[in-house]
Amino acid sequence: MKQRFASLLLCLLTLFFVVGCAAPVTRPESADIPSWNGRLSVRVEATASMASQSFSSAFELQGKAERGQLLFFTPLGSTAAAITWTPEQASLRSGSDIQSFSNIDALIAQVLGTPVPVSALFAWLAGDLSSLDGWQVDQSQFDSGKITARRASPAPQAEIRVILEP
Fold first, then answer.
1. pTM over 0.85
2. Domains of the chain (ranges plus CATH)?
3. 23 with 93: CB under 8 angstroms?
């Protein structure tokens, strides 16, 4: 009986943990807004003042460089974090924690410790090979939904990998 109670308690705690990770999702107003989903990984090398940063997650991106929403998902499929932005502001929501920033570039620079070119990322997703501020994009596997962008300088070195789902 004691073992059955412990198993039931463990199941309930697991259920509460999974439900607690879920966050409500707001969608942009128009169905004509471009969207992408797949896997995204970002790696930023360490510097003298900062440890290396690495992040990988399933994602859903909707919008444009000026206005949009980026959702990151846990392995179980619940929303781990949501980034929304407009020309006037950007916010990062993770669970019940919400952080506000003046724009999407400031949000990304704060979270990753280095700027990442949001406007260039949207261009790369559209198949444009444009480089920006030392970023070199590899779209040799674009038809397979794979994009890799690397920045060697200025420091810190950084890499973005995107694998789009069809």
1. no
2. 31-164 (2.50.20.10)
3. yes
